[in-house]
Fold this protein.
Amino acid sequence: MQKAFPNASGNFSRHLNTFAGFVCGIVGSRSCQLPHIAKGSPGAAKPESRERRLRRWLENAGISANAYFLPFARSLLCSLAHLPLVLVMDGSTVGRGCVSLMVALIYKKRALPIAWIVNKGKKGHFPESLHIALIKEVQALIPDGARVVLLGDGEFDGIDLQAIVNGWEWEYVCRTARSITLYFEGEPFHFGALAEATKCGECIGVPDVLFTHGKYGPVLAVSWWRKDCKEPICLISNMRSHEDACQFYEKRFRIETFFSDQKSRGFNLHRSHISNPGRLRRLMIAACLAYYWMVYLGDMALRNGMNKIVHRTDRCDLSLFQLGLRLLDYLLNEGLSIPVAFLPLC
């Protein structure tokens, strides 16, 4: 951790040490409840003292993702910028009575968090103004010249967001509603009419249409009926190929696996009992960096063959995250040194 912040000193250095303990405690306890994190974090102090220190860190309004997380997110994006940077935006419930809006990067069937917003409320739609504010934060981290593809479900089809993303020369694919009105050569029609004409297994694209009564565009309208789905879905995109649009949109659900890893399959973020959005934002800094670490360990296990020691030898059924957790347990049980890094092995 100190290697990532070589000039850390004073209060920042002390806060950084607490942050490192936070990350270790979340991984060690598989929990986001402070008493459990304190017991799982290293240090000579009593668990009660460690818990008080962790609580002060969460309550400190000066702690921000800009200082403690975005340097890692920026390095991640730079390390993978030779590939298309596939970003997914989605929301999920976190803590007690709060929701998070997240942008994550797809990497080897997992979604690695890049930036997020936390607000009070139940799971539901965020206003488009917050979509735009968050995606602008992410855009500032993107290396020059990188190809970026943004994916989103039906919440993220706002024309203002599309216009901003298009202005950056990003590509995007978003789901939309069947009831949406489209215009082709000046004539209106409902997206549902295109969906009704789509057969199971088909992907139909109509280029150069205008989207909604606001007549945004031209965009590509796509009706896609996957064989494993009960009905077609409606997509809009600025890509030229409807096949490419469908191929990229398939990756969107990877962010759901991230939410599961942060919750029931991993760190139990939903059981943190924290209801303050600011504290949850700061808790997610540690939880998301812990996720980076476990994905790194899982990636390392596959590359050096240690997956066959901690998992079955004939094939690997575990995600990088679960493989990383198993490798960590093995290293701890065997008293071996534990690699600590937060970037994938490119």
Q: What stands out?
A: The chain is about 40% helix and 20% strand. The longest strand covers residues 110-120. The first helix runs from residue 10 to 29.
